[in-house]
Amino acid sequence: MSKRTDRRFTWPDDRLIKAAQDGDVTSLTTVVMESQPHVRKFALSLCASPQDAEDAAQEALIVLYRKIGTLRATGALASWMFRIVRNECLRQLRQFAARSDGAAAGPEESAGPSAEDAVLHRLEVRRIAAAVGALPRDQRQVLVMRDVQGLPGRTVARSLGLSDAAMKSRLHRARAALRHALAVTDPTPGQSAGHATGRPAGRATGEDT
Questions:
Q1: Apex CA 166: angle with CA 163 and CA 168, to 5°?
Q2: Which of 39, 71, 135, 194 is 20 to 30 Å from 80 at the Cα level?
Q3: Closest CA to 146 of 178, 122, 110
Q4: What average pLDDT does the structure give for the chain?
C-alpha cells in the first residue's frame, strides 16, 4: 500500500519544505500542519502522560516553525522532529524527578549540598530519567503518575482505564524493570542501597499503591 494513500498521515514533501526554508509563510504553515499528527504520535509513544505528550508536541512544532532554516536536509524532517520530542520528554522526566527528590529531601539535605553532591545528584537524576524514558509506554505512564507525580493508585487506575489490580500489576512490572535498568547501568556498584534499588526520584518502591 502506498504511504501516500492518506494525505493526513504523510510528511510534507521536499519541495514544500524547501519553500518553507526559503521563507514562504504559506509553505511553512502547511509544513507545520502536516507534521503535527506525526509529531503528536511520536510524543504519545515517548512521553509519560498525554499532557506531557501534548506539551512536547507543541514545543517541537514551535521549534519547527522558528528554526526550519537550520534543517540541513529536507528528507531529515522526521528524524529531527523525533529527536526534539524525545529530548523534551526526557527533560520533563528530569524535572519531575528533581521536584520529587527536592520535596523528599530533609532540611539538612536541602539547606546546602556540597558541589560534589550537587553534581552527583544531577547525574543520578539524569540516569533515572533516561531509564524511565526507556520503559515501554504503558509502564512509563503508570510509574510516573504513581511514583513521580504521587497520584493515588485509584486515580492512576481510572486515568488509564485500568482496574486497581491491573494498575498494581503494571506498576510492579515497571518498578522491577526500572530497578533492573538502574542496576545494569549503575556506574558505582558500591553505592548506597537506596540508589541500588532504583527508587524513582526518592520515592519508596514498595508495593503499597
A1: 110
A2: 135
A3: 178
A4: 75
Q: Say if residues 109 and 121 touch (Cβ distance below 8 Å).
A: no
Looking at this protein, which amino acid is placed at residue 161? G
Sign of CA dihedral 105, 110, 115, 119: positive
Residue pair 100/201 in contact (Cβ under 8 Å)? The answer is yes
Handedness of CA 50, 52, 54, 60 (dihedral sign): negative
> Which residue bears the cell 520515592?
203
- Side chain identity, residue 47: C
Residue 72 cell numbers, joined: 540541513
Per residue in 3-53, pLDDT tens? 443 445 688 999 999 999 998 999 999 999 999 999 998 888 878 778 888
- All cell numbers assigned to 88: 523534551
Q: Are 3 and 10 in contact (CB under 8 A)?
A: yes
> 166 pLDDT exceeds 50?
yes
Give percent helix, percent strand, percent coil of the chain, each to the nearest 5: 75, 0, 25
How many other C-beta atoms lie within 10 A of the C-beta of residue 9?
12
C-alpha cell at 66: 522558528
Task: Please report, as a single letter, which amino acid is at residue 94.
Answer: R
